[in-house]
Structure formats: structure tokens, C-alpha cells
């Protein structure tokens, strides 16, 4: 007789924070920084981590990961565990670093909004390097749902960071906008899959 014992389910942390709000605009804000602030505020306002944390359902309602199977006393081969469902794969990705990556990127976007609102170009350039690094880290950990649009978003955001580091505000704005569009498509696809 085979005994199936499911492993304990680890709760998925849900993002509970408020999205970053841009500071009051200085009186002499340049148009380029204003556009950059608006683009990034859209992402921060939508809540990057909320896009991940909001579509997984509660951990208690999610099917448990593949069950461990104890072999019977006979020499028959053990029964193989069923393949994980897409929802289980998505939950595993989120708990395995995906949610952390999204939360980190959300923080980066909030910092960019703040520095752009302050017209603090040296801080924007520094945050650009951080955005590049964090988007590249996320790029190397693609989700099971719609990895193509996710990878496009991370690649675009990494380019935006590189552009910011080089002081190319128009380039950074265009790359952020492209990344936001791809991220929205990925998020909608993840939600549509019911995961």
C-alpha cells in the first residue's frame, strides 16, 4: 500500500505596502524628467509586486506541491508523482524568488520617481545601475507563464537603467515605457491563466 504525505504548504507573502507616490514637483522641472516621472509612476502605482502576489490565490487554496510517495514493502517501483500544475509552478516561482524580484524592482521604480521629482540627476544615474542589476537578476529567473513578455519587460527595464546611468533621460523614458507595456501584457496573461 502506498502512503501519500503532502509536504507543508509555505504561505506566499502578499505585498501589503502602498505604491510609491511622486513628490510634489519642483517649480522648474524639466519636461524630460516630468515624462520619466510619469512613466515610472504608472508602474509603481500599479504595484509590480501586486501583479505577482495578486494572481496566485491564497496558499491554502492552492494545490499542494507534488506529494512524497513512500514505497510499499514489496519491490515494486514507487508510483511517480503527478506533474505540477501551472498554478503550482507559478506559486513555486513566486516563492522561489519571483516575488522578491518584483518587490525589489518596485522599490527601484519608486526611487526613480522620487529622484526624478527632485531633479536629482546624480541619484538617478546611481539608481539606473541598481535598476539594471535588479532587472537582470529578474530576467534570469523567468516565470512559467508567458516568459517571453516577462523577459522583454526585464530587458527593457535593464536598458532603461543603463540609459539612466549614462544620463540619457529620453532613452530611459522610452525603455521604461516599452518595459511597462510588456510587463502589463505578462501580468494580464498570468491573471488570465488563473494562477
User: SS-based structural class?
Assistant: mainly alpha
The string of secondary-structure elements, in order, is: EHHEHHHH
Write down the Rg: 21 Å
Helix content: 55-70%
Beta-strand segment tally = 2
Quick one: biggest sheet?
2 strands, antiparallel
Strand content: under 5%
Form type: elongated
Low-pLDDT stretches: 5-29, 54-71
Describe this entry's structure for a reader.
The protein is 59% helix and 3% strand. It is mostly helical. It has a domain of 136 residues. The chain has a two-stranded antiparallel sheet. The longest helix is centred in the middle third of the chain and has 32 residues. The radius of gyration is 21 Å and the shape is elongated. The chain starts with a strand and ends with a helix.
Quick description:
With 195 residues, the protein is mostly helical.
Helices and strands in order, then pairings?
Elements: E1 3-5, H1 31-46, H2 48-53, E2 68-70, H3 86-117, H4 121-139, H5 147-165, H6 169-192
Antiparallel strand pairs: 1-2
Helix pairs in contact: 1-3, 1-6, 3-4, 4-5, 5-6
Task: Please name the defining characteristics of this protein.
single chain; two-stranded antiparallel sheet; 195 residues; elongated
Amino acid at each position: 500500500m502506498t502512503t501519500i504525505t503532502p509536504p507543508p504548504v509555505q504561505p506566499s507573502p502578499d505585498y501589503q505596502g502602498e505604491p510609491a507616490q511622486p513628490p510634489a514637483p519642483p517649480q522648474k522641472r524639466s519636461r524630460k524628467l516630468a515624462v520619466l516621472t510619469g512613466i515610472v509612476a504608472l508602474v509603481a502605482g500599479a504595484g509590480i509586486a501586486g501583479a505577482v502576489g495578486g494572481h496566485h490565490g491564497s496558499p491554502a487554496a492552492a494545490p499542494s506541491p507534488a506529494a512524497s510517495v513512500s514505497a510499499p514493502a514489496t519491490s515494486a517501483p514507487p508510483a511517480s508523482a503527478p506533474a505540477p500544475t501551472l498554478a503550482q509552478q507559478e506559486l513555486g516561482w513566486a516563492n522561489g524568488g519571483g516575488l522578491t524580484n518584483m518587490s525589489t524592482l518596485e522599490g527601484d521604480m519608486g526611487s526613480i520617481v522620487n529622484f526624478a521629482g527632485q531633479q536629482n540627476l546624480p541619484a538617478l544615474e546611481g539608481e539606473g545601475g541598481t535598476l539594471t542589476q535588479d532587472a537582470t537578476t529578474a530576467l534570469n529567473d523567468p516565470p512559467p507563464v508567458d516568459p517571453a513578455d516577462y523577459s522583454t519587460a526585464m530587458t527593457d527595464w535593464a536598458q532603461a537603467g543603463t540609459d539612466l546611468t549614462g544620463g540619457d533621460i529620453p532613452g530611459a523614458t522610452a525603455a521604461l515605457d516599452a518595459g511597462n507595456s510588456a510587463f502589463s501584457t505578462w501580468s494580464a496573461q498570468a491573471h488570465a491563466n488563473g494562477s
